[in-house]
Amino acid sequence: MLDKLIDENRKEILKLSVPAFALFFAVVFQIWFSRDGLEDYMQVYLSLYYLPMILVSYYYPKYGPFQALLIGSVPFMVAYIAFIPGVDYAISLLLWLIFFVIIGWLISFLVIKTEQNRSELEDMTKDLQDSKELLGTALWGAGLGVWEKDLLEGQESGDARWRALMGYSPKDDLPRDMFQTHIHPEFLQKYQETEALLTKGGLDNSKMELKLYRKNGEEMWARIFLNVKHSKDGQVSKIVGILEDITSSIVQQMAVVSANEKLNILSSITRHDIQNEITAVQGYLGLIDLDGYILPDTKSYDYLKRVNDSIENILRQMEFTRQYQDIGAKAPEWHNIPEKVKKMAVRPEFQELEVTVDCPIEVLGDPLFMNVFYNLFENSIKHGGQVKKVDISYGHGQKEAVIAYQDNGTGIPDSMKEKIFERGYGKGTGYGLFVSKEILELTNMKIKEVGVEGKGARFEISIPLANIRHLK
Q: What pLDDT sits at residue 70?
C-alpha cells in the first residue's frame, strides 16, 4: 500500500515538474530576447500567462495545441491593448505566441507518446508476470525444481519445488554448494567438469543424469538441465539448473534390464540343452544311415531325409533366436563405418568381393549394427548371382543421412522389394534382412531396397542426422 502511494506521488511530482521546467525556460528566453526595452519586466510578467497553457497541454494533451492557442492569445491581446506597442514589439509577441503554441503541441505530443509507452510497458510487464506465473505452474506440474548459482556473489538459491525434491522445508537453511553437496561421489567429477566448462564459456547448456542424495540420505536419480546467464560485459554470471526426479523411471529400466538378462540366460541355457539333444538325434540318424538298413529311393529313406531337413530348420531358427535376443540388450554405441566394413570385407567368406567404401562417418547404433552389413554381404553372395563388386557410399539431406549399399548382381524384382524384409521370407533362413530391419529400427533408422532388376541390388539405410558423426 505504501509503495503504491509513493508511486502515485512520484507521478504527480513528475507531472508538476514538466510544466515548471517549461515555464522556467520560457521566462529565461523572454528576458533574453527582450532585454533592451522598458517592457522587459512586463514581458516577464505576461509570460506567466503561459503557465496555464503548459499545464493544460500536459494534463489534457488531446486538446493541447488548440488550448495553447486560445490561452496564449490572452497575454498577446492584453499587451497590445494596454501598451499599444509598435510593429516590432507586436511581431515579437506574435512570434512568441507561435513559439509557445509549438511548445504546447510538443508537450501534448510527448505526453501522449509517454502515456502510450507507459501503457505498453504496463501490458508487457503484466504479460511477463503472467508468463512467469504460468512457467512456475508448468514447472511445478511437471515436477521440476529450479536452482541458481550466482558466480559473482558466490550464492546459491532454490525454489520451493527444488527444496521439496531434495527434502528441505521452506524454513530450512541450505548448505554451501547446496547442489554439489548432494551429488553421489561417482558422478561428482563429471558434474564439476561440466560446470567448469559452463563457467569458462566452453558450453552454453548441458544435460546429464546423476545419482543424488536427498537431505535424509535417501538416494535418487535426477536428470538436470544446465544453462548460463551473462552479465552486461558478456561474462558468465549465473548457472541456472532444472532438476527432474527420474528415480522411478531408472528403477523400472533397471528392473527391465535385470529381467532381460535373466530371460537371456534362461534362453541361452534352454537353447544349449536343445542343441545338445538335437546333436544326439543327428548322431543316431547318422548311425542308422551307416548301418545300411534303409535303402535309397525308399519311403523310409525319404522320411529320414525329411527328419534331417526339419532338424536343420530347427537349428537355423535357434540361431535366429540367439541373434534376436541380443537386439536392444545394450546401449547404442558409435561405429566407425569405413574401418569396420574393411575388416569385415577381408573375412574368408567375403574375400571374393571387391569392396569400396566412401563413407567417412561414424554411426550411433545398436551394438549389432554391423550385422546389417554382414547380412547384406551374405545376401549378395547367396542370392545375387555372380556378384564381384560392392560399393558403399554416403550422402545426406536436411533431416537425414543415407548409406547406400550397391552390388553388381542380378538385382531384386519389384514384387519382392518389400517382402524380403519379412520374417522367414525367401531362400535360406529368411531371417537375415528381417533381423537387419529390426536392428536399425531400434535407433530410428530404416532400410529399403531401391535397385533396378538386372543392374544389381541397392539397399539404402536412412539415418537421423543426430546419429551421424563425421570423421576428421
A: 67
CA distances 58 to 14, 61, 122, 293, 369, Å, are: 11, 5, 21, 123, 77
Question: ∠ CA 260-262-264 to the nearest 5 degrees?
Answer: 65
Say if residue 317 is in the same domain as residue 345.
no
**120 and 204 assigned to the same domain:** no
359-418, pLDDT tens digit by residue?
999 999 888 898 899 889 988 888 888 888 999 999 887 788 999 999 998 888 888 888
What is the three-state SS of 109-167? HHHHHHHHHHHHHHHHHHHHHHHHHHHHHHHHHCCEEEEEEECCCCEEEECHHHHHHHC
Q: Look up residue 73 and give its amino acid.
A: S
Task: Identify the domain boundary among 102, 137, 172.
Answer: 137
pLDDT digits (tens, 9 = 90+) for 133-177: 665 665 565 567 887 888 888 788 887 787 888 888 878 877 777
Q: Please give the residue range of the domain that contains residue 69.
A: 2-137
Whether the Cβ atoms of residue 54 and residue 65 lie closer than 8 Å to each other: no
How far apart are the C-alpha atoms of 59 and 277, rounded to whole Å?
103
Grid coordinates of 109: 505530443
In this prediction, residue 445 has a pLDDT band, given cuts at 50, 70 and 90, of very high
- Residues in contact with 413: Cβ distance below 8 Å, sequence separation at least 6, in sequence order: 453
Is residue 130 located within the same domain as residue 148? no
- Average pLDDT, whole number, for the chain? 75
Please indicate, yes or no, whether residues 149 and 130 belong to a single structural domain of this protein: no
Residue 387 Cα distances to 254, 377, 432, 457, angstroms: 46, 10, 18, 10
Helix (H, G, I), strand (E, B) or coil at 378: helix
Measured torsion, CA atoms of residues 290, 295, 297, 299, in degrees rounded to the nearest 10: -100
Answer yes or no: do 57 and 170 share one domain: no
Which string of b and e fits 122-160 if b means at least 16 CB within 10 Å? Answer: eeeeeeeeeeeeeeeeebeeeebbbbbbebeeeebebbe
Shared-domain flag, residues 76 and 190: no
Same domain, 161 and 118: no
Distance, CA of 162 to CA of 243 (rounded, Å): 7
